[in-house]
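Writing this down once: the sequence line spells out the residues, with the fold written below as integer tokens. This is how one looks:
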Amino acid sequence: MNSYDPGQKLHSITKVLEMFVNVPVYEFPTKLPKSLCDEINDYYVNNVDPRPGLLGDKGDSRTDLDSRNVKVRWCQQDDWVGPFIYQYISQANEHLWQYDITGIYYNNLHHLEYEPGMFHTWHVDSTGLDYTAYVPPSSNTIAPLYKEYVRKLSFTLQLSDEEDYTGGDMEFEIPSNKETLDIRSAGKERGTLAIFDPRTRHRITPVESGKRNALVGWVVGPRWK
């Protein structure tokens, strides 16, 4: 008869908890059906004209093509995609970060289409110090509100099958235990939702063939205290 060892159970719990400590990137295997991923993709492609996203909003003289080359489609302010995706993000935040978040501001949710040669170089989505004030919940109008918001989580939903293209890897710089940075690639399975701290450096390597479609956005909340 095996004796009960409470130390063994504690060790197992500790190992599980270690998986959730200082997690900069979390991949949610949503198992979204192909038809739904296609529906999200078609919604943007058929309803929104692509346009470049300019990076010169803070006095930066660089053009968009210096750091990224991608077709961008900003979502409609009252569309259904943001609230749908937010359910997954809310679960991940509750289990991992437990940040004080308000929601997805729909003007920040957009569709990216990468064709051969298109890319996005190393960057962060937020420094943690930048903030803005939005008219909630579904407006892109900047207003001098008393409550200011910062990006607290970034996310990318994979809309293409990994067989649809080559290259186009989403890579993250992850601190290791050896005080060095490791490069980690996000999964390419259709429906994979990568959620991460917007202060994490990441990039999209150049697409070599085919086409990569993804949905990208940020979850905001009150300023860090």
Notes: Residues 53-63 have pLDDT under 50 and may be disordered. Helices lie at 6-18, 34-47, 64-67, 81-95.
